[in-house]
C-alpha cells in the first residue's frame, strides 16, 4: 500500500505538494469537528434522561452556572441546539473537504495530461518509431484520468476517512473502551479479510484493464485509419471481432472492480444493524438502566452513522488504488523515462538558422535502428556543396529515407559526424539547423484546418504570413487551383486526412508548407511521386529554378526527377556505391545507376 502511495505521489508536480498539506490540514479539522458532533449528543441525552445529572456532573454543573441558566429545561434546549450546530458544522466541513479533493484531483488530471503530452513532444524522433500513436493519445487523454480518478482521488479520500475513523474510534475508546475495541476489530477484520482475499485478483484485473484498453484503442485506430482498404477487403467483421474481446474484458474489469468496492457494504449494514441491537441490550443489561445507557446508545448510533461509511470508504479507496496501480505504473513508465528528451523551442523566440554557406559534410556515418541488427547506413562519407541540387537514388531499402532523417537531425548517428560548413551537428545546434530546413515527406500529413493554416502548419491564425503562404503556393504550382476551384480559396477547410484533395494536391500542399519559411535547404523525400507527369514537371522546374540560391536534396524513385542535379548519389544496402552527374553515371557500363535506369536494380 505504501508503495502505491509513493507511486501516486510521483504523479504529482512537486510544486503542488503544498496544496496537499493544506488539504490534509482541512481534513484533520473536519475529522475533529465531525467527532465533536458525535460527542456533543452525549450531554444532551444525559440531561434528557436524567435532569438531576446537572447537579452531580462537574462539567455540566460548571457550564450551567457559567452560562447563568435559570431552568434545567432551558439548559436542555441549549445542549440540543449546541449539538445540532456542531453536527451541522461537521457535515458542512465534510462537504467542503469533498469539494476540495474533487477540485484538486481534477486540476491534477489536467496538469498530468499536459505534462505527459509535453514529455511525449520532447521525445527524440526514434521514440515515435517504436510506439503506437493511438496508444500515446490514449495515455494522454484517458489513462491520466484513470490514474488520477482511480489513484490520487481515492488516496485523498483514504486520508480523510482514516482521520475521521481514527478520531471516532478514539472517542469511543474514551467513552467505553471494551465496546469500542469490539466495534473497531469487527469492522477492521471484515474489511481486512475481504481485501486480503481480493488484492491479488485486483492487481491482475488492473493490469489486464490497461492491456485490454491498449488493445481496443489500437484496433479502433487501425480500423478508422485503414477504412478504405478494410471496406474493399470486406474485413469489417474481422475488425469487429478483434475489437470485441479487449473491449469486453475492459468493461468486465471496470465493472468487477466497482462491484468489489461496494460488496462489503451490504454485509456490513446487516452486521451493523444487529450490532446496534446487541449494544443496546448489552448496555441496558445491568449497566445502570436507561439514564446511563441512553447517552452511550446515542453516541454509538451517531458514531455508527459516521464510522460505517468511513470504513466502507477506506476499503473502497484501498481496493480502487490496488486496481489502478497498473494505470499509475503505465503513466509513470512514460513520465519517468525521459532519456534523450529535447528542449522545446520557446514560443515566439526566433531561432538563428544555421545556413550552410559552403558545404554539408557526412563523415563516416553508421546508423542502426534500435530494433534492428543490420545497419541501415554503413560508413557513409560524402560532401554536398551549398546552393547546389543533389539527388539520392537507390533500390528500395537502400537507406535513402534513413539518410534524410539523419541529415534532418531527427536520428542521431551511431558513429561519424555531420558538419554544416565547419560546425558539427550536435544537440545544441540541431534546432538552428532545422530552422534552416524545409522538408517534404513521402506522405503528407494534413491538419483539419484551412489550406493557409496547413501551409503555415502549427501557427495560430493571427501569426500566419499570408504573403508568404501565397508565394509558397505559387512555387508549388498550387495557387491557381486554390483560388479557382476551392470555395473559400486559402480559407477552405481541408477535411481530416485531406479527403477533399487529390494525392497530387496534397503533395503540393506539402511542398508549399516546406517553402513557407523560405528555407535555405530543402529536402524532398520522394515528394513528387504522387504528381502526374505535367504537374511534376512544373513543380520540378520551380524547384530547379531555386537551385543556385538554395541547397536542394532530392530523394527520388523516378530517375528523371534527378536528371538536372549537380550530383547524384547512388546508395546500395546502406553504402554509397556511386556518385556523379547523370551523364557520367549513365555512361558507366555495369553501374548500379545503369541498372536502376533500366529497372534492373
Ligand atoms: N523504423 C525502422 N525500424 C527498423 N528498421 C527500419 C526502420 N525504417 C527503416 N528500416 C530499415 O532500414 C533500411 C533502410 O530503409 P529506408 O527506408 O531508409 O530505405 P529507402 O532507401 O528509403 O527505401 P524506399 O525507397 O523503399 O523508401 C531498410 O532495410 C529498412 O527495413
- Calculate the terminal CA-CA distance, rounded to whole Å: 62 Å
Looking at the structure, what is the overall shape? elongated
Largest sheet: 6 strands, mixed
Name the CATH superfamily assignment of the largest domain.
Answer: ABC transporter type 1, transmembrane domain
Query: So how many helices?
Result: 23
* Integer tally of domains: 2
- In percent, how helical is the residue content? 55-70%
The overall average pLDDT, rounded, is 85
What would the CATH topology of the largest domain be? ABC transporter transmembrane region fold
- Per DSSP, what share of the residues sits in E-state strands of 2 or more residues? 5-15%
Structural class: alpha/beta
Using the coordinates above, name the CATH class of the largest domain. Mainly Alpha
Radius of gyration over C-alpha positions, nearest whole angstrom: 36 Å
Low-confidence stretches: none
Number of strands: 10
CATH architecture call of the largest domain: Up-down Bundle
Protein name: ABC transporter ATP-binding protein
InterPro entries: AAA+_ATPase (IPR003593), ABC1_TM_dom (IPR011527), ABC1_TM_sf (IPR036640), ABC_transporter-like_ATP-bd (IPR003439), ABC_transporter-like_CS (IPR017871), P-loop_NTPase (IPR027417), Type_1_exporter (IPR039421)
Keywords: ATP-binding, Cell membrane, Membrane, Nucleotide-binding, Transmembrane, Transmembrane helix, Transport
Membrane topology: Multi-pass membrane protein
Amino acid at each position: 500500500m505504501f508503495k502505491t502511495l509513493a507511486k501516486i505521489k510521483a504523479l504529482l508536480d512537486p510544486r503542488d505538494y503544498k496544496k496537499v498539506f493544506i488539504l490534509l490540514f482541512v481534513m484533520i479539522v473536519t475529522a475533529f469537528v465531525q467527532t465533536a458532533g458525535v460527542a456533543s449528543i452525549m450531554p444532551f441525552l444525559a440531561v434528557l434522561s436524567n435532569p438531576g445529572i446537572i447537579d452531580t456532573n462537574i462539567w455540566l454543573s460548571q457550564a450551567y452556572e457559567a452560562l447563568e441558566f435559570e431552568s434545567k429545561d432551558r439548559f436542555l434546549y441549549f445542549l440540543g441546539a449546541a449539538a445540532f450546530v456542531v453536527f451541522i458544522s461537521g457535515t458542512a466541513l465534510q462537504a467542503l473537504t469533498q469539494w476540495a479533493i474533487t477540485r484538486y484531483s481534477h486540476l491534477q488530471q489536467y496538469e498530468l495530461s499536459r505534462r505527459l503530452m509535453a514529455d511525449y513532444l520532447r521525445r527524440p524522433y526514434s521514440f515515435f518509431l517504436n510506439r503506437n500513436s493511438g496508444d500515446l493519445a490514449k495515455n494522454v487523454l484517458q489513462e491520466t484520468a484513470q490514474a488520477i480518478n482511480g489513484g490520487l482521488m481515492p488516496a485523498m479520500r483514504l486520508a480523510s476517512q482514516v482521520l475521521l475513523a481514527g478520531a471516532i474510534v478514539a472517542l469511543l475508546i474514551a467513552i467505553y473502551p471494551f465496546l469500542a475495541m469490539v466495534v473497531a476489530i469487527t469492522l477492521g477484520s471484515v474489511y481486512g479479510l475481504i481485501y486480503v482475499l481480493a488484492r491479488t485478483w485486483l492487481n491482475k484485473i488492473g493490469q489486464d484493464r490497461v492491456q485490454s484498453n491498449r488493445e481496443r484503442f489500437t484496433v479502433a485506430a487501425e480500423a478508422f485509419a485503414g477504412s478504405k482498404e478494410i471496406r474493399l477487403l470486406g474485413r469489417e467483421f474481422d475488425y469487429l471481432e478483434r475489437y470485441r474481446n479487449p473491449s469486453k474484458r475492459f468493461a468486465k474489469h471496470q465493472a468487477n472492480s466497482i462491484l468489489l468496492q461496494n460488496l462489503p457494504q451490504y454485509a456490513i449494514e446487516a452486521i451493523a444493524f444487529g450490532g446496534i441491537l446487541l449494544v443496546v441490550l448489552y448496555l441496558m443489561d445491568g449497566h445502570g438502566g436507561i439514564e446511563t445507557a441512553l447517552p452511550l446508545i446515542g453516541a454509538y448510533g451517531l458514531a455508527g452513522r459516521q464510522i460505517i461509511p468511513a470504513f466502507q470508504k477506506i476499503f473502497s479507496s484501498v481496493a480502487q488504488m490496488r486496481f489502478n496501480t497498473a494505470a499509475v505504473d503505465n503513466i509513470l513508465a512514460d513520465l519517468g523515462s525521459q532519456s534523450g528528451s529535447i528542449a522545446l523551442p520557446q514560443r515566439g523566440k526566433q531561432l538563428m538558422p544555421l545556413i550552410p554557406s559552403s558545404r554539408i559534410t557526412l563523415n563516416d556515418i553508421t546508423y542502426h535502428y534500435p530494433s534492428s541488427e543490420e545497419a541501415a547506413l554503413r560508413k557513409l562519407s560524402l560532401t554536398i556543396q551549398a546552393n547546389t541540387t543533389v539527388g539520392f537514388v537507390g533500390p528500395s531499402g537502400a537507406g535513402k529515407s534513413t539518410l534524410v532523417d539523419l541529415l534532418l537531425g531527427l536520428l542521431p548517428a551511431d558513429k561519424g559526424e555531420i558538419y554544416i560548413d565547419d560546425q558539427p551537428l550536435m544537440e545544441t545546434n540541431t534546432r538552428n539547423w532545422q530552422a534552416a530546413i524545409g522538408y517534404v515527406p513521402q506522405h503528407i500529413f494534413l491538419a483539419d484546418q484551412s489550406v493557409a493554416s496547413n501551409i503555415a502548419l502549427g501557427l495560430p491564425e493571427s501569426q500566419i504570413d499570408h504573403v508568404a503562404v501565397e508565394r509558397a503556393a505559387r512555387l508549388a504550382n498550387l495557387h491557381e487551383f486554390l483560388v479557382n476551384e476551392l470555395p473559400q480559396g486559402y480559407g477552405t477547410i481541408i477535411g481530416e486526412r485531406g479527403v477533399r484533395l487529390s494525392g497530387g494536391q496534397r503533395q503540393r500542399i506539402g511542398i508549399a508548407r516546406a517553402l513557407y519559411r523560405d528555407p535555405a535547404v530543402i529536402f524532398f523525400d520522394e515528394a513528387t511521386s504522387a504528381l502526374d507527369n505535367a504537374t511534376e514537371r512544373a513543380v520540378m522546374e520551380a524547384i530547379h529554378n531555386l537551385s543556385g540560391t538554395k541547397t536542394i536534396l532530392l530523394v527520388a524513385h523516378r530517375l528523371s526527377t534527378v536528371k538536372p542535379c549537380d550530383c547524384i548519389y547512388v546508395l546500395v544496402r546502406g553504402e554509397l556505391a556511386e556518385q556523379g552527374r547523370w551523364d557520367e553515371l549513365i555512361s558507366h557500363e555495369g553501374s548500379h545507376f545503369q541498372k536502376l535506369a533500366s529497372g534492373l536494380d
